[in-house]
Design goal:
disordered N terminus, alpha+beta, two-stranded antiparallel ribbon, four-stranded antiparallel beta sheet, 10 helices
């Protein structure tokens, strides 16, 4: 009976407190959210390798061992790294360059999640990392732009280039705190401190999947869905737009 009870426990119940505040995503979920092929995500994600492993075989995104027994689960920081990879690919950066950049950034920053720990820019051929350089007074932190693979400071204009719209809310240390995948003014957010990082309406906390499914069931009547869920109409409209965005090429 005990074994059956364990089998029937939900995934989140089994991992318990390990997922609180860090977000939890299976690879199929992550692939859908960043709009990458599952096969590509599976190739990018893996456990932390031995130091002797060649860079070309090093995972770009490291799994979160505490979240799963099968090493196929990533945290919110891992998801943000996959988003950076996806944006680089959409900007034409070859995968071999992305792999090298991730390896070098991990070495430079000495962190498990380098692509989530700094802002990255690209011109389609090179990858730049925006660092923060402390001053003697520690009161200001001017930006430093580094060509990750050539170890050279880049031109000031590179700062104006971007992987995409400003849709990631970061803390003082540059670490991502929230992701607004379709824009900061839209009512969709992924926040690892709320519902394990599931896409939600930031005001009510209602999962966007529930709102979007209800919108389909109500034949697009956003007012009806808003009434039944106790949210405003904009939350429903944005949830529907988010699901459409996920399904787009």
């Amino acid at each position: 009976m005990l074994g059956r009870h364990i089998e029937e426990m939900s995934f989140l119940e089994r991992i318990g407190e390990a997922a609180v505040g860090v977000g939890v995503y299976t690879l199929p979920q992550a692939a859908r959210l960043v709009r990458l092929r599952l096969a590509t995500v599976e190739d990018l994600v893996g456990p932390e390798p031995a130091t002797s492993v060649a860079p070309r075989f090093t995972p770009v995104v490291l799994t979160q061992p505490s979240l799963s027994d099968d090493a196929k689960t990533i945290s919110f920081l891992g998801l943000m790294e996959l988003w950076v990879v996806a944006e680089m690919r959409r900007n034409g950066v070859p995968m071999v360059v992305i792999r090298r950049a991730a390896t070098e950034a991990r070495r430079i920053l000495e962190t498990r999640h380098p692509l989530a720990s700094a802002n990255f820019r690209t011109d389609g051929r090179r990858v730049f990392m925006l660092l923060r350089e402390r001053t003697e007074t520690q009161k200001s932190t001017p930006k430093v732009v580094l060509d990750v693979l050539r170890y050279q400071h880049a031109m000031e204009e590179v700062i104006e280039q971007s992987l995409g719209p400003e849709i990631v809310v970061r803390g003082p240390d540059g670490a991502p705190l929230q992701w607004y995948p379709i824009g900061l003014k839209r009512r969709v957010v992924l926040d690892p401190k709320r519902r394990f990082g599931e896409p939600i309406d930031p005001v009510s906390g209602t999962p966007t999947s529930a709102l979007a499914q209800a919108l389909t069931a109500e034949n697009g009547d956003a007012d009806a869905v808003a009434f039944w869920f106790g949210v405003d109409r904009q939350a429903v409209v944005d949830a529907g737009a988010f699901e459409a965005w996920l399904a787009s090429p």
